[in-house]
Amino acid sequence: MSTVARPELLGAVPPPVRRDPMVLVWLAAVGLSWFGDYAWNVALAWTAAHTLSPVLAGVVLGAEMLPQALLVLVGGVLADRCDPRRMLVAGQVGQAAVLVLGALAWSSGIHGAPVLLAIAVAFGIASGLTLPSGMTLVRQIVAGDDLGTVQGWNQISSRAMKLLGAPVGGVLVAWRGPVSVMLVDAVTFVGIAAVLTLVVRPRFRLPRATHDRWRDSFADGLQYLRNHDTAKLFVIGLTALNVFVTPVTGLGVALRVSGSGWGAHWLGIADACLAAGAIVGSVVGIRWQPTYGASAAFRTLVVQGLAIAAVGVGWRPALVLAMTVLGFTAGAASVWLSAAFIRAIDPSHLGRVSSVTSLGDMTLMPLSVPALGAVVHATSVLTATLVFGLAMSVLCAWFATRRAIRTLAA
């Protein structure tokens, strides 16, 4: 395996995360931004469903994904060529401006699909171009030993803000309409842009892609993936995980609850168990970080595959236990895998490699959900969850035993 270059320290060694004001303020700003995003997602879904036809509502809700998928590889190149902090600031300010313009249009009487579609497309463009820069920025401001801790707190913050932001968005859009939620989300974008501008400063210098042409940087990233076994395994492994998890948590649980006649509140209970388990798992992942984190994560995900299989059992205690275990294993494994991934990839190629992983998620997840539905239609919910869960367990057991993963030290 090739040796991964270490980023160059620009000043004093950063303090531990718990005593690092810059990183703590940045984490708080990211959490605030997630709060706004989750509130807007609920408001967008509610507004589209209540003002548009079902077909047009589906187009609006899916409109963000296409430009995001088309541009994320470009974003990976930009993350490795440009200053990721400035890229993120530009993206946050741009999305805030789009929301303010959308609020002004809606307030002036321009309602319906054009405004909602414009916001969704603009968000997709901004997200595709800046998503990989977020991964690169983490490598610039956090010491290698603290990557797992920071990624863990990011995940905890995301889960907690979803629990808070989604209901707030629902209350606001029902009470004051979509304009109020647009402005709330715009404020959160401005807030994180201000923190990135005024507070966050790079502590590590990452080598930059220096090719004269964009396409040469892109080709170099693909060549790196072909030649780097660890990077290749991470991209395949991380992309494959959501193919098995997302369909079951998104569709499989709903089909199990509906088919068993348990009532819609059991869908909420299942989601709550998943979120609570993930938060506890992330805390455990932060507190205990194994020497060989990637291998430990894939072994943990073998257990997650068994939990996915158990979701289809038509017994309410089994559903509660399965979703809790699923969340716990996802929380712990994600902390270890995300930190190991950042450390394993050469800093000069981190943006491009992470963009390939993101593209895999964006393209495969929309296909895997109807695939689960087709298996359920042909057989049963239990058979479908068994197929998806056991396939994931076998795949993760294989990844855990690969030498490039098994010998990757934290």
Task: Describe it.
Helix 11 runs antiparallel to helix 12 (316-344). The chain is globular and about 60 Å long. It is mainly α. It has 15 helices and two strands. The protein is 80% helix and 1% strand. The model has no long low-confidence stretch (mean pLDDT 90). It has two domains: 8-208, MFS general substrate transporter like domains (Growth Hormone, Chain: A, Up-down Bundle), CATH 1.20.1250.20; 223-406, MFS general substrate transporter like domains (Growth Hormone, Chain: A), CATH 1.20.1250.20. A two-stranded antiparallel sheet has the order 1-2.
CATH superfamily of the largest domain: MFS general substrate transporter like domains
Total beta strand runs:
2
- Distance from N terminus to C terminus (CA atoms, Å) equals 16 Å
Structure class: mainly alpha
The major β-sheet equals: 2 strands, antiparallel
Question: What sequence of helices (H) and strands (E) makes up the elements?
Answer: EHHHHHHHEHHHHHHHH
Give average pLDDT, whole number. Answer: 90
Shape: globular
> Poorly predicted ranges (pLDDT <50, ≥5 residues)?
none
Q: Tell me the CATH topology of the largest domain.
A: Growth Hormone, Chain: A
Strand content: under 5%
Total individual domains = 2
Order of strands across the widest beta sheet?
A: 1-2
Q: What is the number of helical segments per DSSP (H or I, 4+ residues)?
A: 15
The CATH class label of the largest domain is Mainly Alpha
The amount of helix comes to over 70%
Reported CATH architecture of the largest domain: Up-down Bundle
Radius of gyration: 21 Å
Map the helices and strands.
Elements: E1 8-9, H1 21-51, H2 54-62, H3 65-81, H4 84-107, H5 113-141, H6 147-176, H7 178-198, E2 204-205, H8 214-227, H9 229-260, H10 265-287, H11 293-310, H12 316-344, H13 350-378, H14 381-400, H15 403-406
Antiparallel strand pairs: 1-2
Helix pairs in contact: 1-2, 1-6, 1-7, 2-5, 3-5, 3-8, 3-13, 4-5, 4-7, 5-13, 6-7, 6-10, 6-12, 9-10, 9-12, 9-13, 9-14, 10-12, 11-12, 11-14, 13-14
